[in-house]
Amino acid sequence: MNENSPKRRVRQGMDYGETEDVQQVHAAIQREKREPRVGLEPLSLWLIAIYGLAIFFGGAYLGRYSGNFSGDGLDPLGGAPRPTKSGATGPGGAQTAELSPADRGKKIFSANCATCHQMSGTGVAGQYPPLAGSEYVNGGTRRLGMIVLKGLQGPLTVKGATFGTAVMQPWEKTLTDAKISDVLTFIRQEWGNKGGPVSPQQIAALRKELANHPDSFTEPDLKAVPEDAELPGGEPAATKPGEPPNPAASPAPSQPKA
Amino acid sequence: MNPADVPLIAPDTAPIATAVDSDVTIHDVERVERALIDASTRLPVLFFYGSAIFWLLLGTLLAGFTSFKLHSPELLSDVSFLTWGRVRPAHMNVMVYGWASMAGIGTAIWLMARLCRTTLRHPLLLIGGAAFWNLGVLLGVGGILVGDSTGYEWLEFPPYAAIVLFVAYSLVVSWALLMFRFRRGDNIYITQWYLLGAFLWFPWVYGAAQIMLFVVPVQGVMQEAVTWWFANNLLFLWFGAIGLGTAYYMIPKVIGRPVYSYHLAAIGFWTYALFASWTGMQRLVDGPFPAWMITASIAATILTIIPVATVGLNHHMTMRGYFGLLRYSPTLRFTVFGAISYTVFSLVGVLISLRSIARYTQFTEASIAYSHMGLYAFFTMVMFGSMYYIVPRLVGREWRYASLIKLHFWSSTYGVGLMVLMLLVGGFAQGSSMNDPSLAFSESTQTILPYLRGRSVSGLLLTVAHFIFAFHFGLMLFGLGRTASVPTFLNPKEEEALEARL
User: Fold this and answer.
1) CB atoms within 10 A of CB B354
2) Does A138 fall in a domain?
3) Nearest CB neighbour to B291, from listed A3, A55, A67
4) Number of compact structural domains in chain A
5) Do both A117 and A54 map to the same domain?
6) CA distance A255 to A131
7) Residue of B28, B295, B347, B482 for testing the chain A interface, max A β-carbons within 10 Å
């Protein structure tokens, strides 16, 4: 504060706020250096080397992790462009139609059924019956449709073993006719099973027929149906004209899978 | 106006010649000219600085809350507007739009006027701009605390505040461009490139983000891509450009020596403009985006090594032989600290963007360390430096206490150093334990607790620094600075310093 005394201020007399005379500018401006200028030193070789390294490294990184610049590739390493099955089924057909019903069924199976019945179709001893080699799966389609649509409870004997601690839920509200038919087609052709395909129309017909059936089925209900009874839509569904998935599905059984 | 009419004079040969071999009156004219320019910028620049420092203090308090709540969550948790989810965005936005942007604009106005050698006509317009800007930040922070936050990082201000900010900004920017239009002299100095760039980039970055998020929103995860592009480019193209431009002015100005190389400056500027705008997506490594988007950003981040090395070398060579002056000049010390931090910040940015490292640092405190390196260790320190230079010229007084400046410098330095160290190391620890499948998530939050406490300590240091600086600035504002013909040196002046006439 003493520094700021009037006496001192008068002596300084350089303060910009206190003087009328514009010639007497603030000391800071008086002593200030010139506005900055620019030298013209050349680029050093080391710097050019750094540029080269950065460009090389950046470019290499871009090449390595670009995921082939594909619009839907989340994997930075890319790999082959998305696998297509068109090669196997021959030319023609929109991309979405390329999957056969069995292939679509496999996806549905792994999302909904594999938890209990396992991807290998073997089920779990004592709890979930196997699908591979099961007489229900290989037999007529009607029983199968009933089980999937309405579910199953109570003990059940499959391939000589008894199961019954778990309940199968009804799928009629969760899966559409097309999905149920796809998944049935899949399990009837997978794991060495020798069943024919199932069409969505068959499932739709059965769904209508069973609309008023309140509960899940039990083993006696199933036994009441002849073992080789087919779905109401009828066997010829597979050969109906104007039904694209089924012709595509017909080569599917020939796929040699374990 | 015809470019052919402009005489082709190599940069700064003609002015040197006139200045050197003419009589003293030229110097006098230059001084009077500077005095007039400074006088014309006084009110708007001080208004911007004053508001900025107010927001700095508020932001510091909010930051303290944010930091303490992470290890003491029960602190004031029953007051809805002081919950973590509101205090944190309030802190970030106050710092970004209140402190950093306003300080940057203040410095930019002054630099622009000085370098265009033109007085600021109609400063009232700029004061209006500053008032509007304050209103925008006030509305925005109020909106966030009330619960109107938009939820996009660095864009939490509700749209009504963003509109006010934009009006304020257009006042300011049209102003700066006018000044550039009426410039005198043939040379356009490096600082002017960066400032012009910043003034044109800000509306692009901010406007693009606003339009793509609120006016015509893009769908789904692409919003995140827009947000991160925005946050990164606000840091690079707005704050980065202003900060670098300021450093390009302050360093040669204080030591009184030309910038080392024009060529380096040009390369540094254009490669910066080219590569920086590609960055941002690297913060989304392994996110649900096409891999090439993220990789392109990482590659661009790697390429920013080019401007960073160039600018760093340019500053270093300019300073070479003059590092001793860091003992005396506050401006130089803050600015050089900021310039060095810029290099470190950029290199750390390159490292943590690489996929192999981002695996550990992403979604951890390390990315917060990164933001603080950019916005504090680099930008804020450069702004402090420029304020230490500019304010005495505006109020006609010297800084009162060298001890306060020193205290400010060391608390800021240690504060931000400790914070960055804690958050970087803590972030790596957090990331490794989050990646370890044998650990529960709650254990990864345990590993970071000590680091968070350390961060709070660093926050206390920064709080001290900011209040000291605000007090000192207040003294200057009320005319209580020293009246002396020598500046306030950090250390007792010696021959060398006197000779350099800082």
Assistant:
1) 17
2) yes
3) A67
4) 2
5) no
6) 18
7) B295
A165, with CB counted inside 10 A (0-12, 13-18, 19+), is exposed
Determine, for residues B34 and A32 on separate chains, whether the beta-carbon distance falls below 8 Å.
Answer: yes
B487 with A28: CB under 8 angstroms? yes
Identity of the amino acid at B18: T
- Distance between CA atoms of A126 and B87, rounded to whole angstroms? 57
Q: Chain A window 55-114: which residues touch B at a Cβ cutoff of 8 Å? A: 55, 57-59, 61-62, 65-76, 78
Cβ separation B298–A61 shorter than 8 A:
yes
Q: What stretch of H or E contains A158?
A: strand A156-158
Q: What is the CATH number for A147?
A: 1.10.760.10
Residue pair B274/B235 in contact by the 8 Å Cβ criterion: no
Provide DSSP, B329-398.
Answer: -HHHHHHHHHHHHHHHHHHHHHHHHSHHHHHHHTTSTHHHHHHHIIIIIIIIHHHHHHHHHHHHHHHT-B
Tell whether ipTM is more than 0.85: no
Contact between A16 and B249 using a beta-carbon 8 Å cutoff = no
Q: Does A48 touch chain B (CB under 8 A)?
A: no
The answer on A224 and A114 residing in a single domain is yes
Shared domain for A58 and A171, answered yes or no, is no
Residue A124 lies in a domain: yes
* Contact: B295, A12; criterion CB under 8 Å: no
Cβ of B480 within 8 Å of Cβ of A4? The answer is yes
What digits encode the pLDDT tens for the residues B490-500?
877 655 555 55
Residue-wise pLDDT for B226-282, tens only, equals 999 999 999 999 999 999 999 999 999 999 889 999 999 999 999 999 999 999 988
Would A254 be classed as within a structural domain?
Answer: no
* B397 inside 8 A of chain A by CB: yes
CB B168 within 8 A of CB B130: yes
Any A CB within 8 A of B83 CB: no
A145 shares its domain with A192:
yes
Rounded CA separation A229/A235 (Å): 10
Examine the domain organization and report whether A116 and A220 are in the same domain: yes
- B299, A62: Cβ pair inside 8 Å? yes
CB pairs under 8 A between A and B: 182
Residue A184 confidence (pLDDT): 84
Residue listed under structure tokens 């230490």 = B388
| Test mutation, A18, A37, A44, A74, chain B, max B CBs within 10 A | A37
| Smallest CA–CA distance from A48 into chain B, residue | B306
Which chain A residues contact residue B289 at CB under 8 A? 74
What CA–CA distance (Å, rounded) separates B85 from B70? 11
A35 touches chain B (CB under 8 A): yes
For chain B, which domains are there?
24-500 (1.20.210.10)
- A138/A194 same-domain check: yes
Give yes or no for B50 touching A (CB within 8 A): no
Q: How confident is the model at residue B488, as a pLDDT?
A: 81
Which carries the bigger pLDDT value, residue B301 or residue A98? B301
> Chain B residue closest to A12 (CA)?
B484
Domain span holding position A49: 43-76
* Mean pLDDT computed over every residue of chain A: 72
A58 and A166 together in one domain: no
Residue A87 lies in a domain: no
Residues A230 and A135 in one domain: yes
